[in-house]
Amino acid sequence: MAANQILIPALPTASVLNDADLVVISQGGVAKSATGAQARAGAVLNSNELGFDYPVTNPASGTIIVVFNNRNLGTILGCDMRMVAGSCTATWRIADQGGANPIAITGLSSLAVTTTLLESAASALNVMLKTGALDRELQLVLASVTGAGPLLAALRYTRA
Hints:
Elements: E1 22-27, E2 30-35, H1 36-45, E3 49-56, E4 62-67, E5 74-83, E6 87-95, E7 103-104, E8 111-113, E9 118-121, E10 127-128, E11 137-146, E12 151-159
Antiparallel strand pairs: 1-2, 3-12, 4-11, 5-9, 5-10, 5-12, 6-7, 6-8, 6-11
Protein backbone atom coordinates (compact mmCIF):
# COMPACT_ATOMS: atom_id res chain seq x y z
CA MET A 1 0.00 0.00 0.00
CA ALA A 2 1.29 3.45 -0.94
CA ALA A 3 2.09 5.93 1.83
CA ASN A 4 -0.83 8.24 0.94
CA GLN A 5 -3.51 5.52 0.77
CA ILE A 6 -5.92 4.71 3.57
CA LEU A 7 -7.38 1.23 4.01
CA ILE A 8 -11.02 1.26 5.12
CA PRO A 9 -12.22 -2.22 6.07
CA ALA A 10 -15.81 -3.36 5.44
CA LEU A 11 -16.83 -0.33 3.35
CA PRO A 12 -20.30 -1.08 1.94
CA THR A 13 -20.79 -0.89 -1.81
CA ALA A 14 -22.83 2.04 -3.12
CA SER A 15 -25.66 -0.21 -4.28
CA VAL A 16 -26.34 -1.44 -0.74
CA LEU A 17 -25.90 1.78 1.26
CA ASN A 18 -28.46 2.35 3.97
CA ASP A 19 -29.16 5.77 5.45
CA ALA A 20 -26.93 5.11 8.48
CA ASP A 21 -24.00 3.51 6.58
CA LEU A 22 -20.84 5.58 6.39
CA VAL A 23 -19.24 6.49 3.09
CA VAL A 24 -15.89 8.13 2.49
CA ILE A 25 -15.83 11.51 0.80
CA SER A 26 -12.74 13.36 -0.30
CA GLN A 27 -13.04 17.07 0.44
CA GLY A 28 -10.03 19.18 -0.47
CA GLY A 29 -7.83 16.09 -0.48
CA VAL A 30 -8.91 15.13 3.05
CA ALA A 31 -10.84 11.91 3.59
CA LYS A 32 -14.03 12.49 5.57
CA SER A 33 -16.99 10.29 6.41
CA ALA A 34 -20.70 10.91 5.94
CA THR A 35 -23.79 8.78 6.27
CA GLY A 36 -25.44 7.49 3.12
CA ALA A 37 -28.37 9.83 3.77
CA GLN A 38 -26.04 12.85 4.05
CA ALA A 39 -24.24 11.94 0.83
CA ARG A 40 -27.53 11.67 -1.08
CA ALA A 41 -29.31 14.68 0.50
CA GLY A 42 -28.03 17.34 -1.91
CA ALA A 43 -28.92 15.33 -4.98
CA VAL A 44 -32.36 14.41 -3.69
CA LEU A 45 -33.31 17.90 -2.51
CA ASN A 46 -32.32 19.57 -5.77
CA SER A 47 -33.18 16.84 -8.27
CA ASN A 48 -36.27 18.68 -9.54
CA GLU A 49 -34.74 22.19 -9.57
CA LEU A 50 -33.74 23.42 -12.99
CA GLY A 51 -31.55 26.35 -13.94
CA PHE A 52 -31.73 28.28 -17.19
CA ASP A 53 -29.25 30.92 -18.37
CA TYR A 54 -30.40 33.76 -20.62
CA PRO A 55 -27.54 36.02 -21.71
CA VAL A 56 -28.81 39.16 -23.45
CA THR A 57 -26.01 40.43 -25.69
CA ASN A 58 -27.40 43.89 -26.43
CA PRO A 59 -29.92 44.72 -23.70
CA ALA A 60 -32.45 47.44 -24.47
CA SER A 61 -35.58 48.67 -22.76
CA GLY A 62 -38.56 46.51 -23.69
CA THR A 63 -40.02 43.04 -23.21
CA ILE A 64 -38.08 39.85 -23.91
CA ILE A 65 -40.13 36.66 -24.25
CA VAL A 66 -38.01 34.07 -22.46
CA VAL A 67 -40.49 31.16 -22.69
CA PHE A 68 -43.34 31.53 -25.18
CA ASN A 69 -45.17 28.22 -24.61
CA ASN A 70 -44.39 26.62 -21.25
CA ARG A 71 -44.79 22.82 -21.22
CA ASN A 72 -43.94 21.99 -17.58
CA LEU A 73 -46.17 22.74 -14.60
CA GLY A 74 -43.88 24.35 -12.09
CA THR A 75 -42.76 27.26 -10.00
CA ILE A 76 -40.27 30.04 -10.62
CA LEU A 77 -38.00 29.98 -7.54
CA GLY A 78 -35.88 33.02 -8.26
CA CYS A 79 -33.25 34.55 -10.50
CA ASP A 80 -29.62 35.60 -10.55
CA MET A 81 -28.73 38.66 -12.65
CA ARG A 82 -25.73 40.82 -13.44
CA MET A 83 -24.72 43.35 -16.08
CA VAL A 84 -21.17 42.98 -17.42
CA ALA A 85 -21.17 46.74 -18.03
CA GLY A 86 -23.98 49.13 -17.15
CA SER A 87 -27.24 48.78 -15.27
CA CYS A 88 -30.96 48.28 -15.77
CA THR A 89 -34.23 47.64 -13.99
CA ALA A 90 -35.68 44.18 -14.57
CA THR A 91 -39.10 42.65 -13.94
CA TRP A 92 -39.99 38.99 -14.53
CA ARG A 93 -43.65 38.40 -15.49
CA ILE A 94 -45.89 35.45 -16.28
CA ALA A 95 -48.47 36.03 -19.00
CA ASP A 96 -51.12 34.04 -20.78
CA GLN A 97 -50.26 32.45 -24.10
CA GLY A 98 -49.60 35.18 -26.64
CA GLY A 99 -48.59 37.69 -23.94
CA ALA A 100 -52.04 38.64 -22.62
CA ASN A 101 -52.62 39.55 -18.96
CA PRO A 102 -48.99 39.78 -17.78
CA ILE A 103 -48.50 39.75 -14.00
CA ALA A 104 -45.20 40.57 -12.26
CA ILE A 105 -43.73 37.78 -10.14
CA THR A 106 -43.62 38.88 -6.50
CA GLY A 107 -40.01 39.36 -5.44
CA LEU A 108 -38.77 39.57 -9.04
CA SER A 109 -40.07 42.98 -10.05
CA SER A 110 -38.27 46.32 -10.27
CA LEU A 111 -34.90 44.64 -9.67
CA ALA A 112 -31.95 47.05 -9.79
CA VAL A 113 -29.40 45.12 -11.84
CA THR A 114 -25.80 46.37 -11.83
CA THR A 115 -22.35 44.83 -12.28
CA THR A 116 -22.73 43.17 -8.87
CA LEU A 117 -24.42 39.76 -8.80
CA LEU A 118 -28.06 40.06 -7.72
CA GLU A 119 -29.74 36.95 -6.31
CA SER A 120 -33.50 37.29 -5.86
CA ALA A 121 -36.18 34.88 -4.67
CA ALA A 122 -39.74 34.70 -5.96
CA SER A 123 -42.40 34.62 -3.27
CA ALA A 124 -45.81 34.68 -5.02
CA LEU A 125 -47.54 34.82 -8.42
CA ASN A 126 -44.77 32.54 -9.69
CA VAL A 127 -46.53 29.38 -10.96
CA MET A 128 -46.46 28.50 -14.65
CA LEU A 129 -49.08 26.18 -16.15
CA LYS A 130 -48.77 23.65 -18.96
CA THR A 131 -52.30 23.25 -20.34
CA GLY A 132 -54.78 25.69 -21.76
CA ALA A 133 -53.80 29.26 -22.55
CA LEU A 134 -53.28 30.63 -19.03
CA ASP A 135 -49.86 31.39 -17.50
CA ARG A 136 -47.83 29.88 -20.33
CA GLU A 137 -45.44 32.73 -21.22
CA LEU A 138 -42.45 33.99 -19.21
CA GLN A 139 -41.36 37.55 -19.90
CA LEU A 140 -38.39 39.66 -18.83
CA VAL A 141 -39.12 43.39 -18.97
CA LEU A 142 -36.10 45.72 -19.04
CA ALA A 143 -36.22 49.45 -18.33
CA SER A 144 -33.67 52.24 -17.85
CA VAL A 145 -30.92 50.27 -19.60
CA THR A 146 -27.54 52.03 -19.55
CA GLY A 147 -24.17 50.73 -20.70
CA ALA A 148 -23.19 48.16 -23.28
CA GLY A 149 -24.10 45.03 -21.38
CA PRO A 150 -24.38 42.15 -21.84
CA LEU A 151 -27.02 41.23 -19.29
CA LEU A 152 -26.51 37.84 -17.66
CA ALA A 153 -29.74 36.33 -16.32
CA ALA A 154 -30.26 32.92 -14.79
CA LEU A 155 -33.63 31.56 -13.70
CA ARG A 156 -34.28 28.90 -11.06
CA TYR A 157 -37.37 26.77 -11.73
CA THR A 158 -38.84 23.62 -10.24
CA ARG A 159 -41.30 21.25 -11.87
CA ALA A 160 -44.33 20.14 -9.91
